[in-house]
Amino acid sequence: MKQIFKGTLKVITGLLILLLVCTFCCCKLLDKTPYKQTGFYKNELAELEHIQPPPGTYSDLQFKRDTIEIGWGRVNLLPTFTTTIAIDAKRGGKHFDGVHDSIYVRAFVFKQGDKKIAYVSADLLIIPPTVTHLFDSILIKDGFDNSNIYFTATHTHTSIGAWHNSYVGEIFAGKYDARVPLHIADCISAAIREAEKNCGAAKIGYAELPTRHLVYNRLVKEKGKVDSLIRIVKIEKDNGTKAAIITFAAHCTVFHENLMELSADWAGLMMTQLNKSGKIDFASYSAGAVGSQGPYEETKNQEDEAKYMADGVGVIVANNFDSIATHYATSMRLVHLPFYMRKPNLRITPNFVVRPWLFNKLFGDEKVYLNTLQLGDIVFAGTPCDFSGELVGPIDSLAKSKGLHLLITSFNGGYMGYVTDTKWYSMNAYETRTMGWFGPQNGDYMSEVIERMIGIIAL
């Protein structure tokens, strides 16, 4: 009996030691170092110094540069094969079994002399990094690569998946299929080529329009803020055709896991309605600062809810579109800025995190960046995340003080999870715990970098 007891004790001791070793190898304490005291912050400030301010004043540039020419194009995203649906987490790896409504890639090309920039929005959950990497080479002969393409997505949760080759990527998008990134890249390339073919002289204008009962704070409800503005860039060609780039903060999550057909969600329905309105020839939508922002739930019926959201946004756009003043723009610029962060700090408890090596094994190790696209006095700021609508206000105010109209978009070709208001970081919630991958203070940090970029590029 005594020997049995000793043997059992040794086994238990061995298991405890093994557990401690495994815990030490796989976990560590959360890094709470204030971001302004870190090496990555110093590196980011050094990168900011490389951004050159524009020469001269805005009035000087108006007389020295050619007018921007603009074109647009659209390509259907439906592949010739079936895929999983992104998000896949609650769909069990099943492939889509039909098309509820068409999904597209939409592209704009802006040309000025021998310079050109493409703006892309795709009816996808995100622009997958596996797709972004292909643009280092796929369109070189056409004069486009990652340095002059601004990526966005509508963030529909009911589009094609199978585009990320990592353990967590397959949880979100389903089992990886190497054909999918190539298919998406081919569609984006075709849309950009189509847009460039019909470039012509055009005027642009901007409006931001208030809404009620279309978006709510899904993270902290009434305790938090919402970004309730619809933002519109109006494009009016000299030949009379008109286009719109629209951003809004409400997630495209009306259908989500209960639908096994492909759909662009409420935003797709809204764009279709606007294209048929007689006011806009080509409507394009990009997810704005969608972090913490959900579609206002008017009804539990998904079809009725999608129509409610589409009608709510679409009617406001259509009713105000004609009154948006336009002008010729004579300056454009796209800036890409590497975005340095602390090492991954995915929490498993409030103070313990998965070690970076294990995170990278599960998630992949992708570099991310911020970017700004400037068209005259209109500036898009692209983020590699679900950027929180709660963070928009101060950045927008700064842009206005510089005489700029700002549109913040999410999903610019990289992905680092959610960036939320720093004050909610300790919450045990999906956005803050499950999807807050890179430690505390990222809301403050990313906001500061965007503000610094705006300060540098402001004309």
Characterization of this structure:
The protein is an alpha+beta fold and 459 residues long. It is built from twelve helices and 21 strands. The protein has helices at residues 2-26, 39-48, 58-64, 129-132, 167-173, 179-197, 265-275, 302-321, 356-363, 392-401, 430-434, 442-457; strands at 27-29, 69-76, 85-86, 104-112, 115-122, 149-153, 159-160, 200-209, 215-217, 230-237, 242-248, 282-287, 293-295, 327-328, 332-338, 352-354, 369-375, 378-382, 386-387, 405-409, 418-419. Strands 2, 4, 5, 6, 8, 10, 11, 12 and 14 form a nine-stranded mixed β-sheet that branches. A four-stranded mixed β-sheet has the order 15-17-18-20, with helices on one face. Strand 10 and strand 11 (242-248) form a beta hairpin. Helix 2 (39-48) runs parallel beside helix 12, helix 7 packs across helix 8 (302-321) and helix 10 packs parallel to helix 12. The chain is globular, with a radius of gyration of 23 Å. Mean pLDDT is 93; it is low at 57-64.
E-strand count: 21
Shape: globular
Oligomer: single chain
Major sheet size, sense and barrel closure: 9 strands, mixed
Distance between the termini: 85 Å
Fold blueprint:
Layout: H1 2-26, E1 27-29, H2 39-48, H3 58-64, E2 69-76, E3 85-86, E4 104-112, E5 115-122, H4 129-132, E6 149-153, E7 159-160, H5 167-173, H6 179-197, E8 200-209, E9 215-217, E10 230-237, E11 242-248, H7 265-275, E12 282-287, E13 293-295, H8 302-321, E14 327-328, E15 332-338, E16 352-354, H9 356-363, E17 369-375, E18 378-382, E19 386-387, H10 392-401, E20 405-409, E21 418-419, H11 430-434, H12 442-457
Parallel strand pairs: 5-6, 11-12, 18-20, 19-21
Antiparallel strand pairs: 1-16, 2-4, 2-8, 3-7, 4-5, 8-10, 8-14, 9-13, 10-11, 15-17, 17-18
Helix pairs in contact: 2-12, 7-8, 10-12
